[in-house]
Amino acid sequence: MAHVDEPRDSGARAARGAAGPALAPAGDRVHPADDRMREALKVAAVQAEETGGLGRPGRPVNKRSPFFIGMTAAAGVAVTYGLVELVIRARSVLVLIGLALFIAIGLDPVVAWLTRRRVPRWAAVMIILLAGVGIAAGFVMAAVPPLVTQAKLLAVDGDIGAADIGGLGRCGLAVVLRCA
Questions:
Q1: For residue 4, how far is the Cα from the chain centroid?
Q2: Are the C-beta atoms of 24 and 16 separated by less than 8 Å?
Q3: Are 38 and 4 in contact (CB under 8 A)?
Q4: What is the pLDDT along the chain (180 residues), one digit of tens a residue?
Q5: Any idea what the Cα angle at residue 152 is, between residues 161 and 169, rounded to 5°?
Q6: Which residues contact 161 (CB under 8 A, 6 or more apart)?
Q7: Element (H, E) at 164
Q8: CA distances for 78 relative to 61, 71, 72, 81, 82, angstroms
Q9: Three-state DSSP string of 12-43
Q10: pTM higher than the cut 0.85
Q11: How many CB atoms lie within 10 A of CB 53?
Q12: In Å, how far from its chain's centre is CA 170?
């Protein structure tokens, strides 16, 4: 990038040497508009150096003006809307995080009890985790056999049940209670 004092066509001026603008071709002569441009660039460079490149500060903003109050309110509404939308979209993840925190806080006293009994924390966490998996597996093993039995009975008696359900139109619940 050329400095403020350097012309745009420094190669052509160096080729002219000491001949000066009088002997330069007509297309290379310096126009008055170029001089004004160079002067404006110098003034801008000085001003940028004095003010740090940002210019002189203007009048302070009146914080009580209706425009400023309206823009502040609109920004507040936009931020609130964005946060509500974020919570709505992340609802399922937030529920899982909350559930995990609830379980962790609930099981922490047991882990602390085990660590007081000289069990390393990682081992205490694994013991609690395996106990939880064992309880869930026991629940499934206790619930599956009755479900299988009920499913078999439903498959065998399914035709009779379908006929009874068809008769509910006029009699309503009385038919079901008599059959039971």
A1: 46
A2: yes
A3: yes
A4: 445 554 455 444 444 444 445 555 555 666 778 889 999 999 888 888 888 877 777 888 888 899 999 999 999 999 999 999 999 999 999 999 999 999 999 999 999 999 999 999 999 999 999 999 999 999 999 999 999 998 888 877 766 655 555 555 555 555 455 554
A5: 10
A6: 154
A7: helix 158-166
A8: 22, 10, 10, 5, 6
A9: HHHHHHHHCCCCCCHHHCCCHHHHHHHHHHHH
A10: no
A11: 8
A12: 57
Q: Which two tokens stand for residue 161?
A: 């049940």
Both structure tokens of 1: 């990038």
| Cα 74–chain centre separation | 21
Q: Could you tell me the residue ranges of all domains in the chain? A: 10-51, 66-119
With the CA atoms of 83, 84, 87 and 89 taken in that order, what torsion angle do they form, in degrees rounded to the nearest 10? Answer: -110
Six-digit token string for 45: 């460079």
42: Cβ contacts below 8 Å, ≥ 6 apart: 4
